């Protein structure tokens, strides 16, 4: 199986940067043939093999719509709908699932596009809740009439979620551990 070129959705791709490195004496051919990112499951994620079986169909490398991010500790994807109202209804439906599962996304919304990142903050990594809620998002997106597949998450949408995640309060360290 030829190694896959990883092309991040934001900024110059690794492949371009390394091709530009040719002639600089740096090992470029081998370095741009990078192996795909592997999931990094959080401690206590249970049966990792079973979780991996539930995760794989969701990944864009297997025909799904989600991409691994943050060194495999997160799943992220963009959703687009016909109107702001449908987008908001979708986010409302997702938020109800968050309440039920007690698990919160890192997400951003501009008009009819919503970027969602699922990652577990404590313990850090990808958990069963992230995988299950990603699958739930796919199902809800169908219910609310998701439109064409946007070409990867835009830098702006990811950046918005990153800035909010960085400035948000600590949602996830149990109170007892904070004392
Ligand atoms: C105490 C409460 O169960 C925890 O804070 C939950 C809440 N929601 C959460 N959401 C996410 N994404 N990660 C967490 O670690 C997490 N922890």
From TrEMBL:
Enzyme nomenclature, EC number: 4.2.1.96
Molecular function per GO: 4-alpha-hydroxytetrahydrobiopterin dehydratase activity
One GO BP annotation of this record: tetrahydrobiopterin biosynthetic process
Family matches, as InterPro entries: PCD_sf (IPR036428), Pterin_deHydtase (IPR001533)
UniProt keywords, alphabetically: Lyase
Family per similarity comment: Belongs to the pterin-4-alpha-carbinolamine dehydratase family.
PANTHER family to which the protein is assigned, alphabetical: PTERIN-4-ALPHA-CARBINOLAMINE DEHYDRATASE
Protein's name in the database: 4a-hydroxytetrahydrobiopterin dehydratase
């Amino acid at each position: 199986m030829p190694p896959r070129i990883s092309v991040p959705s934001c900024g110059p791709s690794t492949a371009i940067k390394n091709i530009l490195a040719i002639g600089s004496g740096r090992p470029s051919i081998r370095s741009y043939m990078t192996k795909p990112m592997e999931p990094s499951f959080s401690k206590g994620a249970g049966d990792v093999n079973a979780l991996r079986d539930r995760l794989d169909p969701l990944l864009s490398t297997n025909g799904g719509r989600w991409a691994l991010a943050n060194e495999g500790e997160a799943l992220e994807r963009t959703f687009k709908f016909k109107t702001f109202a449908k987008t908001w209804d979708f986010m409302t439906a997702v938020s109800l699932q968050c309440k039920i599962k007690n698990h919160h996304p890192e997400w951003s919304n501009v008009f009819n596009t919503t970027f969602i990142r699922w990652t577990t903050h404590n313990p850090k990594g990808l958990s069963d809740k992230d995988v299950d809620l990603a699958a739930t998002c796919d199902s809800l997106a169908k219910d609310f009439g998701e439109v064409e597949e946007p070409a990867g998450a835009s830098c702006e949408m990811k950046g918005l979620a990153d800035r909010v995640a960085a400035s948000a309060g600590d949602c996830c360290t149990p109170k007892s551990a904070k004392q």
